[in-house]
Write a structure and sequence with these properties.
With 334 residues, the protein is α/β, with parallel strands linked by helices. It folds into 2 domains: 7-220 and 294-315, Spore Coat Polysaccharide Biosynthesis Protein SpsA, Chain A (Alpha-Beta Complex); 222-291. It has helices spanning 18-35, 52-62, 77-87, 105-114, 130-145, 162-169, 178-184, 205-219, 222-251, 259-291; strands spanning 4-14, 36-45, 66-71, 92-96, 119-123, 154-161, 189-193, 299-304. An 8-stranded mixed beta sheet has the order 7-5-6-4-1-2-3-8, sandwiched between helices.
Length: 334
């Protein structure tokens, strides 16, 4: 089978997974070596505490085109994936989960990406709890309002064209905003359904709320507007209650009347106040993070494979123009 000329980067985010990393790299390398003339495997290590960093040299001397990047501390999933995309140099960049995704997924995603789809999203069936299914439609509306429009069963694995990667990473601080920025590029996107190797843990209501807050707070100022609106509504209710208190004092001499209403209403107002303060605190923290000079992740060191793909291959053109079809840009000139 003739190898494809496209340069494919595969990003693997690991955390104490060396027991399955070796076999996965072997299978992945064999598959990539048969399919592509140029490829790289970018391993993002979330500061593993197992034998990964001590034994990674064995993989680098045996397998071709591996780049191992060790982060100084564990970060959130979107930041780790963003670190992989920022360091990848391929025409098409795919990220996989070594515990869940088959290696054959790379060729399937890249094939769809070459057909003019700049974004190919992996979709696999994920078990959910009953409460998660109840709140999911409402959470989806909130996420859509900030531009996050990924499919419900999005697995986290995807393939991006080079221009999509550039559009997402060229604007500086994008790490926590990775998925929303991908959705907002406006490039053509398609879903790809596949079967996972393992069944994921059930998504529950706590996980759903955490993800929704993470995406919302880091990607939009709309919650701040919602809290402001809530504050206005609370002020109006307080004014109505003040009018009610005046009317009660005019038409009755019973001082205790309305005391229960006062207590309940004061409680509601305090709840609104503290909810607003919580969101203000989140946004103040976000502003402080955005104004700080430190990056969202730090690299301890990077190691590369000692084995080259093809030492006799040169990236040299002898003519300034060529009639050959540019496979990388196929379908993207519209």
């Amino acid at each position: 089978m003739k190898k494809q000329e496209s340069f494919v980067s595969v990003v693997l985010v690991i955390k104490n997974n060396f027991n399955i990393l070796t076999s996965y790299i072997k299978e992945l390398s064999d598959d990539l070596n048969q399919s592509y003339s140029d490829y790289e495997i970018v391993i993002i290590d979330q500061s593993s505490t197992d034998e990964t960093s001590a034994n990674i040299d064995n993989l680098l001397t045996e397998y071709k085109s591996i780049r191992y990047i060790l982060l100084s501390s564990e970060v959130t999933e979107d930041v780790a994936v963003a670190a992989g995309y920022e360091n990848a140099i391929g025409d098409f960049v795919v990220n996989l989960d070594i515990q869940r995704d088959p290696v054959s997924l790379v060729n399937q995603l890249v094939t769809l990406c070459k057909q003019g789809n700049d974004i190919v999203l992996g979709v696999t069936k994920q078990p959910t709890t009953a409460m998660y299914n109840i709140i999911r439609p409402y959470v989806k509306r909130i996420l859509r309002s900030i531009g996050y429009d990924f499919p419900r069963d999005f697995s986290g694995s995807m393939c991006l064209s080079r221009r999509t990667v550039n559009a997402v990473t060229e604007s500086g601080r994008f790490y926590h905003k990775l998925y929303v920025r991908i959705a907002k590029t406006g490039y053509k996107s398609i879903d790809f359904k596949y079967d996972s190797k393992v069944v994921s843990n059930k998504k529950d209501i706590v996980t759903g709320i955490k993800e929704a807050l993470h995406f919302t707070i880091f990607n939009s100022t709309k919650p701040l507007r919602w809290m402001s609106t809530l504050g206005v509504v609370g002020s109006l209710l307080a004014f109505v209650f003040a009018v009610y208190s005046i009317i009660v004092n005019i038409f009755t001499n019973n001082v205790t009347q309305g005391w229960t209403t006062l207590v309940l209403f004061s409680s509601v107002l305090f709840a609104l106040l503290f909810t607003m303060l919580a969101f203000f605190g989140e946004y103040l923290a976000r502003l402080l993070n955005d104004r700080s000079e430190h990056r969202s992740y730090s690299v301890v060191y990077e190691k590369n494979s000692n084995v080259m793909l093809d030492e006799n291959r040169f990236n040299v053109l002898y003519d300034s123009e060529s009639d050959d079809l540019n496979i990388v840009k196929t379908g993207r000139n519209k």
